[in-house]
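Long-time lurker, first post. I've been practising inverse folding by hand and with some scripts of my own, and I keep getting stuck on stretches where the structure tokens seem ambiguous. Below is the full token string for one chain I'm working on. Before anyone asks, I'm not after the true native sequence, just a reasonable design that respects the backbone. If someone could post their per-position residues I'd love to compare against what I wrote down in my notebook.
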């Protein structure tokens, strides 16, 4: 087995171990030893791949949510990328509901923001190419930050409310909001006049 494939498999086994542990224990109480014991590895194996358990959570989010969405964003399928990201989160609902509770310096919200911002900024830079924006404020960084905040808000609110809305419906809501101005949203949001 190639080294890269073996590394990826080891990371995946450690990730699955953490996910299973988080079903019954709070993240804070799970140790690296717990993760490696459940995975059938020794502790040094963990440290060969991750610096700490927060790094493992980031890897899981990046591999399961960011990378699949990024592949669709790269070919201009933004709506489909959002739908895929939401659907993948729903598949691992219990893990993401527990992970969303991580607070502080290594909060899950920060991890989500960083991942989304990176993908959006890269996509915006690619789309802009050598074109000059109509206003100097419209930089890839500002635009990605603006859309990152709205996307993060939608994701975190959805997760913390128990992911009750199906991913397809939430993707439609998000698309509705970001494709209109605020005045259009206020005018168009009511299905039936009151």
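-- Answer (accepted) --
I ran through it position by position. Result:
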């Amino acid at each position: 087995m190639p080294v890269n494939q073996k590394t990826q498999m080891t990371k995946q086994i450690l990730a699955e171990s953490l996910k299973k542990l988080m079903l019954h224990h709070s993240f804070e109480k799970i140790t690296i030893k717990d993760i490696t014991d459940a995975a059938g590895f020794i502790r040094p194996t963990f440290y060969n791949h991750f610096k700490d358990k927060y790094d493992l959570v980031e890897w899981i989010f990046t591999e399961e949510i960011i990378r699949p969405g990024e592949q669709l964003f790269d070919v201009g399928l933004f709506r489909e990328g959002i739908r895929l990201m939401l659907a993948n989160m729903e598949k691992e609902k219990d893990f993401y509901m527990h992970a969303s509770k991580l607070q502080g310096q290594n909060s899950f919200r920060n991890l989500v923001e960083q991942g989304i911002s990176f993908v959006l900024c890269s996509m915006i830079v690619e789309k802009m190419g050598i074109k000059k924006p109509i206003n100097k404020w419209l930089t890839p960084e500002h635009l990605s930050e603006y859309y990152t905040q709205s996307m993060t808000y939608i994701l975190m609110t959805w997760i913390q409310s128990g992911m009750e809305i199906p991913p397809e419906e939430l993707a439609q809501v998000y698309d509705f909001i970001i494709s209109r101005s605020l005045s259009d949203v206020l005018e168009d949001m009511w299905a039936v006049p009151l």
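A couple of notes from the structure itself: The chain has ten helices and no strands. The two ends are 64 Å apart (CA to CA). Happy to go over any region you disagree with.
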